[in-house]
Amino acid sequence: MSSCPSIFFRQQHQVFFVYLLLGPPVLFYLVRLAVPFLSVILLM
After folding, report:
1. Is the pTM of this model over 0.90?
2. Where are the bilayer-spanning segments (predicted)?
């Protein structure tokens, strides 16, 4: 029972570490995807 929160905390920490590792490239990719759509909307 006492080991369950530590496993949960470790899993949360791992997810946070993966998010920090993958965050900036994913944001850059989303910005690159959003720019053509925004330009098309502005041209229309």
Report:
1. no
2. 16-43
Tally of domains in the chain: 1
Distance CA 21, CA 16 (A): 9
Q: Which two tokens stand for residue 29?
A: 């990719």
pLDDT tens digit at each of 44 positions of the chain: 556 667 666 777 777 787 777 778 777 888 898 888 888 888 88
Could you write out the DSSP letters of every residue in 1-44?
-THHHHHHHHHHHHHHHHHHHHHHHHHHHHHHHHHHHHHHHHH-
Structural domain containing residue 17: 1-44
